[in-house]
Amino acid sequence: MALIVQKFGGSSVADAESIKRVAKRIVETRKAGNEVVVAVSAMGDTTDELLDLAHEVTPIPAPRELDMLLSSGERISMALLAMAISSMGYVARSFTGSQAGMITDAQHGAARIVDVTPVRLREALDDGAIVIVAGFQGFNRDTRDITTLGRGGSDTTAVALAAALDADVCEIYTDVDGIFTSDPRVVPKAKKIDRISSEEMLELAASGAKVLYIRAVEYARRHGVTLHVRSSFNNNEGTLVLNNPGEGDAPMEQPIVAGVATDLSEAKITVVGVPDLPGKAAEIFTIVAKAGGNVDMIVQNVSTAVSGVTDISFTLPKPEAQQVLRALAAEQERVGFSAIQHDDQIGKLALVGAGMRTNTGVSAKLFEALSAASINIEMISTSEIRISVVTRADTLAKAANVVHAAFGLDGDDEAVVHGGTGR
Ligand code: ASP
Ligand code: MG
Fold first, then answer.
1. Ligand nearest to the CA of 148
2. Which residue among 21, 58, 178, 378 has the highest number of C-beta atoms inside a 10 angstrom radius?
3. Assigned fold of 3-249
C-alpha cells in the first residue's frame, strides 16, 4: 500500500462546493488502495481577512494572539473537509498542527519545524482513516503555544508530513496544471514541465515563481521527498520535482534552460557617492541588515580615480524598503555618502537552468533578446545555474515573453489557467 500526502491550497477549498470536490478526489485516492494524509490551507482568502481583522482591532497585534487567530483558518477547512469525506461513507479524522506532532521553534509568524512526531496520524491511518491535517501551524514545546510557519506554510506542512511518514509522494494540488516554464499569466505560451530538478525549482522559487514555496522545496530536497505539483481541477499528470530527475526509467532530456521567473515584489535602493574605501560596503550592509532588509542583488559602480566615490545599488522586498531607507538616512554622516535613491518601479527576470553550467553563450543570448526588444538592463546578477536582470517594471512582461521565445521554450498552445492566484 502506498502512502500519499496531498496538499490542497486555499483556492482549492474556497467554498462548500470546492470542499466537496476535493473530498471526492481524496476518496478516489483512498479507493485506489492508498493511505492518504491531507494537509489543507484555510479557505480562499481567509488568512488575509483574519489579518485585516486583527489590524482593525490594533495596529500591532501581539504575535502569540495573531498565531492563535490565523491558525483558526485551517481548523475550519480541515473540519469541513473531514465532514465532507465522512458524508461519502469514508472515515476521516482531522488534526490540528499540534495534534499532528508538528513541533516548531517559538518564532511566532515564521516558525521553523524542528521535529515531527506524527504518532496520532499513524494510529488513525492504522485504523483505516483518511487523515486531514491543518496546514501552516505547529506547536512549541517550551512556550506550549501555537505557532504558524509563515505565509504559504501549508506546502511545508505537507512536505514535512511526507518526510516524517516516509510517504511515497507529496502531491501539491493547485489551480494550474503544474510548474510552467514561466508564469502563464505573464507568458501565455508557457509550457508545463514534466520533470524538474529540485535545484532548479529552488532557484525558480527564489526568483519569484509562486507555484511552490521555497521552504517547502528546500525541505523536500533535504529529505528526498518527491513532489508532484498538479491541478485540483483535472486528473492530468503535473510536474515531478526530484533531486535527480535524470534517474530512473524515464531519463529526462536536460534542456539548458528550465524556466523564466518574473518578480515585481522588489524595490531598488541606491546609495550615491559612497567613499571608495575599504569597509564602506560592510558599514552599509550592516545598517541594512540591522534594519531587517533581505538584500537580493547588489551592484557597485566602478569609481573613477578623480571622484574617489562610488554608487552602490541593491534590491530588497518592497515592504522592507522604508525601514532600510530610514536607517541609512540616520547614518548618512557617519558613513559619508552623499544621497539615497529609492525606486519601486523595477521588475526582475531570472533565467534558470542546470544546463548553464556546461553551455556557453547563455548570457549573450539573453542580452541579445532583451536588446532586440529595446529593453534596458539596469542590474545583472548570476549564480551557477541562474542569470537575473533588473528592468523597468512596465517592461517586465514583454522581457519575459521575448526571453522565453529566444530560448525555445514557447509551447504551441496557450496555457490553461483554472483559478486566479496560482496558489
Ligand atoms: N493559509 C495560509 C496562508 O494563506 C497558509 C497557506 O495557504 O499555505 O498563507
Ligand atoms: Mg492561503
1. 1
2. 178
3. Carbamate kinase (3.40.1160)
